[in-house]
């Protein structure tokens, strides 16, 4: 399928927005030791910056998506990116932990709305039957966030300070908003009744899979820097190199999964869920530091496909109400992030980091069982 140059630029702009959104959301992961030291709190408290963010998204996304249901989709994306800019500017000058929490909540309020529209916007740009491909294209920004966004943020935090790293994210968000304003055309919203998006039984297996695999993934991923230090014996500026390798593996995984997700939705979903479990078991099995490091790096390949296969499943089971169905899916995703970060935080606070990896393995395995039995992951005839 040939894609017009204007459409390619528009998809690139949306992918850039995904990049900055994911980088901003996961800054506490990349800057965990610097934030803890700078704000005078424990590592587990920095993890709560992820938990609180996710909790706000989960609570606000459905009412805010309903409130903005008739907005032009481009305008919606621009407003939410503006909230990312404001959030990170305030975080960069935060004098204490309380202000840092408040700053994070600003971006959290717009986060769910952004993710409820971006995949459907991309799908509408490419046309019918291309939901998985469109999602993979724009979600490449996610993988690039882990490849460059988090590794560069980690490097900036180590060398120039975490406040400089946060300001850099704000600047990239502002630039991305400008590019979207110039390259993406106006796009009218689809606004079906809210109740249809909330109670649709066809989406239940997708949301259950989301809750299980995301909870597991973020129980470990929120503390990936701690896992790298413990199992790969890497710390300091070298951590950014491991994060870069992790992101590279994620980008490769996204490309492979994106090519197959529309044709083989169940197989790709099993790769992402089962792959998480396999990598965590390999990490927990112990062995030389290089083996553990390899498991951490390879972990990114199935993890990168989580959002693609799940969002594609949402578009597949709810083609006539993508925005609101995506909002409900985002609730499950953010509850998973909050639960995972909280469970991992409890394990870290009690000095039981391996438990966080164990939760990830269990979540991936349970999600794979749901995928195996659910019609939501069957190929559309």
UniProtKB/TrEMBL annotation:
Residue ranges crossing the lipid bilayer per the database entry: 48-68, 75-95, 101-122, 134-156, 162-184, 205-232, 238-257, 269-290, 296-315, 327-346, 352-371
Membrane topology: Multi-pass membrane protein
Subcellular location(s) per record: Cell membrane
Main location: membrane
Origin superkingdom: Bacteria
Cross-referenced Pfam families: MFS_1 (PF07690)
Record's keyword annotation contains Protein biosynthesis: no
Record carries keyword Transit peptide: no
Entry-linked SUPFAM superfamilies: MFS general substrate transporter
Name of the molecule in the record: MFS transporter
């Amino acid at each position: 399928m040939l894609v017009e140059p204007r459409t390619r630029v528009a998809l690139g702009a949306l992918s850039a927005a995904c990049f900055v959104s994911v980088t901003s959301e996961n800054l506490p992961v990349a800057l965990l030791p610097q934030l803890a030291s700078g704000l005078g709190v424990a590592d587990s408290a920095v993890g709560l910056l992820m938990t609180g963010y996710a909790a706000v998204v989960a609570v606000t996304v459905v009412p805010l998506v309903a409130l903005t249901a008739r907005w032009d989709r481009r305008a919606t994306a621009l407003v939410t990116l503006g909230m990312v800019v404001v959030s990170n500017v305030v975080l960069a000058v935060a004098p204490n932990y309380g202000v840092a929490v408040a700053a994070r909540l600003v971006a959290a309020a717009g986060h769910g709305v952004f993710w409820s529209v971006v995949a459907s916007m991309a799908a509408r740009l490419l046309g019918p039957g291309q939901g998985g491909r469109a999602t993979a294209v724009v979600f490449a920004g996610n993988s690039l966030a882990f490849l460059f966004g988090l590794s560069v943020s980690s490097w900036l935090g180590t060398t120039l300070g975490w406040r400089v790293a946060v300001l850099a994210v704000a600047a990239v968000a502002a630039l991305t908003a400008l590019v979207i304003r110039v390259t993406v055309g106006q796009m009218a919203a689809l606004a079906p009744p809210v109740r249809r998006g909330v109670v649709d039984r066809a989406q239940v297996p997708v949301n259950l899979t989301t809750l299980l695999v995301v909870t597991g993934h973020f129980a470990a991923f929120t503390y990936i820097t701690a896992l790298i230090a413990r199992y790969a014996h890497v710390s300091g500026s070298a951590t950014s190199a491991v994060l870069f390798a992790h992101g590279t593996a994620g980008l490769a995984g996204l490309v492979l999964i994106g090519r197959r997700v529309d044709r083989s939705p169940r197989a790709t979903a099993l790769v992402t869920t089962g792959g998480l479990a396999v990598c965590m078991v390999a990490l927990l099995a112990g062995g030389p530091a290089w083996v553990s490091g390899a498991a951490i790096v390879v972990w990114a390949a199935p993890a990168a496909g989580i959002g693609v296969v799940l969002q594609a499943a949402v578009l597949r089971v709810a083609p006539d109400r993508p925005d609101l169905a995506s909002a409900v899916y985002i609730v499950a995703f953010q509850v998973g992030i909050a639960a995972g970060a909280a469970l991992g935080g409890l394990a870290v606070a009690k000095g039981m980091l391996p438990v966080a990896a164990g939760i990830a393995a269990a979540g991936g395995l349970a999600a794979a069982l749901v995928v195996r039995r659910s019609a939501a992951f069957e190929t559309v005839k």
